[in-house]
Design a protein that fits this description.
The complex is a heterodimer of chains A (about 300) and B (about 250). With about 300 residues, chain A is an alpha/beta fold. Chain A has eleven helices and 14 strands. The longest helix of chain A is centred in the middle third of the chain and has 16 residues. In chain B, strands 1-2 form a two-stranded antiparallel sheet. The longest helix of chain B is centred in the middle third of the chain and has 38 residues. The chains are: A alpha/beta (about 300), B mainly alpha (about 250). At the A-B interface, helix 3 of A face helix 1 and helix 5 of B.
């Protein structure tokens, strides 16, 4: 079952002298459970999409559903199960962290024990009485996550949750997102820190210029971004390349190594061939394609977005 | 709706502005009481009859403070971006704005009632020490009624400031509009359209506080009549604010 369904979402902003299309017919389905990474370059329409989903922005056209509820018509019935942060968490700077949560908690009759619990979860229990204006950006981000967690949500929508966090904070947020996803919640997280998403998300969607470019399980998206191969280092690159090509294995010299067009499962063919030729490896490893490479490839300006409905 | 109100009232009483105004009001009451006491002339002592005059004379300031409190109640939300946060918890914007408006106007009313009430008590105590005559019959009832009218006029100012700030999404903008309208627009209307005086905001606030009034053209206005005009101002401006708030994107 899809927990978020977006069908032909379009949002135009009318400006003096024309209009800006922020989202151009986006189709997206987010399955229930796990962490879903929502990726795209700046201006791709990620935040606008999230704002449309949360009822902050009226879409120009298109249909959206969250937790089975039509958005925005039935959104009020679903909001009690949706926690969210849009861009940086908006908080009252002169209120304490706890008072900020108390103001929100009253909207849904959430008790003091829940507030204490979420503050402990995000590691802000010892600073809860301090004014938010004294918090670092990372602490504000964690307080925003605490606010989102107060509802014990089935769906968490987090827009760039690692923004402003130091490396330790990023690791904490990554662990938290994984834990939340493993608990059976759906965590929909937009981010530009691709390495983080690759380590955290089960599935991703990549959007650019307001439309969906690619979506699916992380390993599928990675597989679409490049050919499998091996990186091989030997002392004599020319002799190594010759030995491999002579054995029918495609190999080319790239800088200080050989790129061999074989999957990692056939690495033994390479080692055997080179050893037979009296050449000994100093390194052999899989030439892994990372999300950043795929992302940059798919979101290049000269790559047109596929028509709606051709990706899933 | 109750939950929304509870949340907004918690925010209202947590605001630094309310605490700062409470301190300033305390200082103002103490200082004015001291000045009234030391300036009381034995030949013409400070008496009970002067107490309502002083409060009535301060009505414009009370309304402006109310306007500012109301405007900043929602203006601070736009400045901090917390309006978006609220809407991600309760997306029915009409309810959100009504709850905020009730909390804003309600907190202005309570605050001003306390300020005017304390001021009345302080001045009455000075009068009891300086005025050889006894407290006039009905003084307490009349003074209580005046305090309620002053507080409600301030709350009306608060609601109008709130509505303008909802549209402008800015506290200072709403205060500027308030001053500009009251001083310039109504000043011009008073000069060039004296027949419209009956409907001006400034006049009706004054008539409401005093309890009755008469325009420069001699038209008599009752407290009920001025109250109805003020309610009309509130309804129209709040309806515009509500429509604007529901229609526009929240960023």
């Amino acid at each position: 079952m899809a927990i978020i369904e977006i069908d032909g979402l379009r949002k135009e902003y009318h400006r003096k002298g024309g209009k800006t299309v922020a989202v151009a017919g986006l189709d997206l389905e987010v399955p229930e459970g796990g962490v879903f990474g929502f990726l795209g370059p700046n201006g791709a329409g990620k935040t606008t999409t999230i704002r449309c989903l949360l009822g902050l922005v009226r879409p120009t056209s298109g249909r959206m559903k969250m937790l089975g509820a039509e958005v925005p018509g039935d959104l009020p019935s679903a909001l009690s199960r949706i926690g969210s942060i849009v861009e940086s968490p908006a908080l009252f700077p002169r209120f304490s962290g706890r008072r900020n949560l108390e103001v929100l908690a009253r909207l849904q009759g959430i008790g003091a024990s829940t507030i204490t619990s979420v503050l402990e979860t995000v590691g802000l229990a010892d600073r809860q009485r301090d004014q938010v204006k004294t918090y670092s950006l990372g602490m504000k981000q964690r307080l925003g996550i605490a606010a989102a967690l107060m509802k014990d949500p089935a769906l968490l929508i987090l827009d760039e949750p690692a923004n402003g966090l130091d490396p330790a904070g990023i690791v904490e947020v990554r662990d938290l997102l994984r834990r939340l996803g493993a608990e059976g919640r759906t965590v929909f997280v937009s981010s530009h820190i691709l390495a983080e998403v690759q380590q955290t998300a089960d599935r991703v969607a990549i959007i650019a210029r307001g439309g969906l470019i690619k979506a699916g399980p992380v390993h599928e998206v990675l597989a679409s971004g490049g050919t499998e191969g091996l990186i091989v280092r030997v002392d004599d690159l020319v002799a190594g390349a010759r030995a491999l090509v002579t054995s029918g294995i495609s190999a080319v010299i790239e800088g200080d190594h050989l790129r061999v067009a074989l999957p990692v499962t056939e690495a033994s063919r390479v080692t055997r061939t080179l050893a037979d030729g009296g050449l000994y490896l100093s390194e052999i490893r899989a030439d892994e394609v990372d999300l950043e490479t795929v992302f940059l490839e798919l979101t290049r300006d000269d790559v047109p977005p596929p028509p709606p409905g051709t990706t899933s | 709706m109750i939950a929304l109100l509870a949340s907004e009232l918690l925010r209202a009483r947590s605001r630094r502005l309310v605490k700062v105004l409470a301190i300033l009001s305390g200082i103002g009451i103490a200082l004015s009481t001291f000045l009234v006491a030391v300036n009381s002339d034995p030949a013409d002592p400070f008496g009970y009859r002067v107490v309502p005059d002083i409060l009535t004379g301060l009505a414009f300031i009370f309304v402006i403070i109310g306007w500012y409190m109301g405007a900043s109640f929602v203006g601070a939300e736009w400045a901090a971006g917390t309006m978006a946060t609220t809407i991600t918890w309760e997306s029915r914007r009409g309810r959100v704005l009504v709850a905020k408006a009730v909390a804003a106007a309600g907190s202005v009313f309570v605050f001003m009632m306390l300020v005017c009430g304390l001021m009345s008590v302080a001045f009455a105590m000075v009068a009891s020490a300086t005025d050889p005559s006894a407290m006039p019959a009905g003084f307490i009832v009349d003074q209580t009624s005046l305090v309620l009218r002053l507080a409600s006029a301030s709350a009306i100012g608060g609601l109008l400031g709130f509505s303008v700030a909802t549209v402008a999404r800015h506290t200072a903008g709403a205060v500027g509009v308030g001053f500009g309208y009251l001083l310039i627009v109504e000043g011009l209307l008073r000069a060039f359209r004296p027949g419209w005086q009956r409907l001006l905001l400034g006049e009706n606030l004054a008539f409401w506080v005093i309890g009755h009034g008469r325009t420069s053209s001699g038209q008599s206005v009752s407290m009920t009549g001025s109250g109805l005009v003020l309610v009309g101002y509130c309804l129209v401006l709040f309806a515009i604010a509500l429509a604007w708030f529901r229609a526009r994107d929240v960023n």
